[in-house]
Amino acid sequence: MAQFLLTHGPTLRLVVSFGLLAVLAAAEAWRPRRMRSLTRGQRWPGNLGIAVADALAVKLLFPLAAFGVAVFAAQRGWGGLNLWNIPEWLKIVLALLGLDLTIYLQHVLFHAVPVLWRLHRMHHTDLDLDVTSGARFHPIEIILSMGIKLAAVVALGAPAVSVLLFEIILNATAMFNHSNLALPLGVDRTLRLLVVTPDMHRVHHSVIPAETNSNFGFNIPWWDRLLGTYRAQPAAGHEGMSIGLAAFRDPAATSRFDAMLVQPFSGPAGATSLEAGQSDT
């Protein structure tokens, strides 16, 4: 299994990404959780254009990517896990948990620091949520996020296999938990014990600041529960809640590719989402 991932990991990631995109897009059309405020034709070109820009930026600036850095660190014995004499499978599990906690803490940080929030808020100005929202992050945020991930890989001494697995899982869960798929309530209750579901993550995209500042997890829901940021449901219900940010309600400005690229450098500065949440309570 490990050798297969090392040999075919990048190809597998592409197959999973495009396959899951197609499956979730079809599932959303079949069982939508909410009515759309904009059509796919209005939102998808911008969201998918941003995803392409992100991929090009990472490829250009980080030719080794996280996998290459993991191999480099392992060869030199860098990182905590490379110092422990424990089974490889346990190293992989601990690395996956450590990387996931890093992404959770990074997410909170991007809500708390003003300059980082200006970048991250582009993700939150989407007026609808669907499978493409999971890839809608400003390229500068993606570059900073990759830098944080590389530092975490080195500090942890994450095995290369765990890095490949984590990137595949993170990409898949981001598309899943941003999707507009209606799951049976019983299925959602069971799944959210193990993974962040669409209903759980949708609360994070509420226009109400106190709800925006909840459910920061992407893969697993445990960090939110352990660290006090879990919120089960939106106050207005999933059909009645408003998605996005109060200061960004113009469909063109929130869905056009060029407008999204310049959004962090224009529009109201406002408070960070955490500051707005504090003043809201």
Q: Could you please describe the fold and organization of this structure?
A:
This protein has one domain (2-280). The chain has 15 helices and no strands. It has helices spanning 2-30, 40-61, 65-76, 88-112, 114-124, 139-156, 160-177, 185-191, 198-202, 209-212, 222-227, 237-240, 251-255, 257-262, 273-280. Helix 2 crosses helix 6 (139-156) and helix 3 packs parallel to helix 6. It starts with a helix and ends with a helix. The model has no long low-confidence stretch (mean pLDDT 90).
As a percent range, the share of helical residues equals 55-70%
In percent, how much strand structure appears in the residues? under 5%
Question: Which value, in Å, is the CA radius of gyration?
Answer: 19 Å
What structural class results from the helix and strand content?
mainly alpha
Tally of DSSP β-strands: 0
The H/E string reads HHHHHHHHHHHHHHH
Number of helices: 15
Shape: globular
- Give the low-confidence spans: none
Reported for the largest beta sheet, the result is:
none
Mean pLDDT: 90
Report, as a whole number of angstroms, the end-to-end distance: 50 Å
Give the domain tally. Answer: 1
